[in-house]
């Protein structure tokens, strides 16, 4: 007792009507001396507590979401149809598109609900997965930190792999054009990958999503023009659809699924975009930013894939722009526009892995070194993606493998698991239909993961073996 206290006297310093029992972590209580106020207390609204320095409008968020999904993948859709056939490809694109949209929806909805429970204004992808376990069944709560960490590192690896694909897209399209107009200086794809280094390093120094909106808008404009030119060539003297295979061999379907998932999935960008909206209530719902964006994405992907395969058949390449005529300026301009569109998209996709890396590191570094550290990390990450792209420049196989390993697990399997865990003790629907729905999604994801990876790796091995004799022959002829 203090010296000023008299024996038998109770000192009530800092007394208030709501008592401080609730602040004791060992005794969580909602009771107070004025329980009526607590009962009538307004539920926590995360949207009201969000304080975003540079919020995006709903239109700006739509642009970002479109750009994250409408990238290099749209031009890979004819190659995807080659692995499925016209009929399976058409229905499969709609089916996979609906699943991808649903998975994004349940992830965002879960995030908004756990924000209320955790009393946090917003959460990222990894935080949402961790919180779903943390506020889920008691037996699964110890897994919360593992789920959070696993998603963080997997998401970073996913988008770094996608960035490597982007570098190959840019390099191959520039090579196609410059080889035609500067035939005396034909460079390898690897060299063109290296030449992308400087512009990519510069554009990736932009750290705020709001300042990336003009780049996303410009990339969309380039993509639309390129799309128009590509469709012009596709519809010009279009062959009879009956000449194309309607149902491809089932063993190639996993490649179709993994390519479409790679093309459509922008799940890592979804949470940052929703978190930085001025009116996040407009993200879900009908029509909503998500539904509008995905309706546009699925429609465009289906059209390009369907008619692109009719036009070029089995000769279609990893990017359909590479099938356009070499000797026509209009066709070559489409390749340049596509390369520039992907160049500007790179910085938006780079935002996701960089956000995770910086979140893990910034508290370990003195504030005065934050700027130089950011520049160093961003530069190193870009150099790494360019180096990997130069080492594995086969575009179609790279897309298939990336989609199978990373995006099938993150884009489909993870939301299905998170949705099940979050609703396990809340609302699984009549006859537990949510459980069965998520089981089906998980099976599709695992098929894409294992079968797609196996077929992709087999293709890489076969390609490597086919190159070896040619290389040996070239070396022998040089020695002779």
In brief, what are we looking at here?
By secondary structure, the protein is mainly alpha-helical. It has helices at 35-39, 46-49, 58-69, 77-82, 86-118, 125-134, 144-181, 189-195, 197-203, 209-235, 253-264, 267-275, 288-312, 329-361, 370-391, 395-423, 433-479.
Describe the structure.
The protein is an all-alpha fold and about 475 residues long. The protein has one domain (about 55-460): Up-down Bundle (Amino acid/polyamine transporter I), CATH 1.20.1740.10. About 70% of the residues lie in helices and about 0% in strands. The chain has helices at about 35-40, 45-50, 60-70, 75-80, 85-120, 125-135, 145-180, 190-195, 195-205, 210-235, 255-265, 265-275, 290-310, 330-360, 370-390, 395-425, 435-480. α8 packs antiparallel against α15 (about 370-390). It is globular and about 70 Å long. It starts with about 35 loop residues before the first helix and ends with a helix. Keywords: Membrane, Transmembrane, Transmembrane helix. GO terms for molecular function: L-amino acid transmembrane transporter activity.
Shape: globular
Give the low-pLDDT segments: 1-39, 468-480
> Approximately how much helix is present in the residues?
55-70%
Question: Per CATH, which architecture?
Answer: Up-down Bundle
What profile does the largest beta sheet have? none
Subcellular location: Membrane
GO molecular function: L-amino acid transmembrane transporter activity
Protein name: Amino acid transporter transmembrane domain-containing protein
InterPro entries: AA_transpt_TM (IPR013057)
């Amino acid at each position: 007792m203090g010296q000023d206290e008299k024996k038998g006297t109770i000192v009530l310093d800092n007394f208030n009507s709501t008592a401080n029992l609730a602040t004791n972590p060992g005794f969580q209580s909602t009771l107070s001396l004025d329980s009526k106020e607590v009962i009538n207390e307004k539920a926590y609204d995360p949207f009201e507590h969000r304080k975003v320095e540079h919020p995006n409008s709903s239109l700006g968020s739509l642009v970002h979401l479109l750009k994250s999904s409408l990238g290099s993948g749209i031009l890979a859709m004819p190659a995807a149809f080659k692995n499925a056939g016209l009929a399976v490809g058409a229905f499969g694109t709609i089916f996979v598109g609906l699943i991808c949209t649903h998975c994004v929806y349940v992830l965002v909805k879960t995030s908004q609900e756990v924000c209320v429970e955790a009393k946090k204004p917003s959460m990222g992808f990894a935080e949402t997965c961790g919180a779903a376990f943390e506020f889920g069944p008691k037996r699964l709560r110890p897994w919360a930190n593992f789920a959070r960490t696993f998603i963080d590192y997997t998401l970073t690896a996913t988008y770094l792999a996608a960035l490597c694909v982007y570098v190959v897209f840019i390099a191959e399209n520039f090579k196609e054009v410059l080889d035609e107009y500067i035939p005396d200086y034909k460079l390898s794809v690897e060299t063109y990958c290296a030449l992308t280094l400087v512009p990519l390093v510069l554009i990736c120094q932009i750290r705020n999503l709001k300042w990336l909106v003009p780049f996303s808008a410009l990339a969309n404009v380039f993509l639309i023009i390129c799309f128009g030119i590509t469709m012009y060539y596709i519809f010009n003297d279009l062959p009879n659809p009956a000449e194309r295979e309607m149902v491809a061999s089932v063993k190639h379907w996993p490649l179709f699924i993994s390519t479409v998932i790679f093309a459509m999935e922008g799940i890592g960008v979804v949470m940052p975009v929703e978190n930085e909206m001025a009116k996040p209530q407009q993200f879900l719902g009908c029509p909503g930013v998500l539904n509008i964006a995905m309706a546009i994405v699925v429609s465009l992907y289906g059209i390009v894939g369907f008619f692109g395969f009719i036009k070029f058949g089995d000769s279609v390449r990893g990017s359909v722009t590479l099938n356009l005529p070499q000797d026509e300026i209009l066709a070559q301009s489409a390749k340049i526009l596509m390369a520039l569109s992907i160049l500007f998209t790179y910085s938006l996709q780079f935002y996701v892995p960089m956000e995770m890396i910086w979140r893990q590191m910034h508290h370990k570094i003195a504030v005065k070194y934050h700027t130089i550290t950011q520049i160093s990390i961003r530069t190193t990450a870009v150099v790494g993606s360019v180096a990997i792209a130069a080492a594995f420049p086969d575009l179609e196989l790279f897309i298939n493998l990336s989609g199978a390993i990373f995006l099938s697990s993150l884009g489909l399997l993870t939301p299905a698991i998170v949705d099940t865990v979050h609703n396990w003790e809340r609302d699984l629907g009549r006859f537990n239909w949510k459980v069965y729905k998520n089981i089906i999604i998980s099976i599709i994801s695992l098929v894409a993961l294992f079968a797609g990876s196996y077929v992709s790796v087999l293709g890489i091995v076969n390609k490597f073996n086919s190159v070896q004799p040619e290389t040996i022959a070239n070396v022998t002829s040089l020695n002779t």
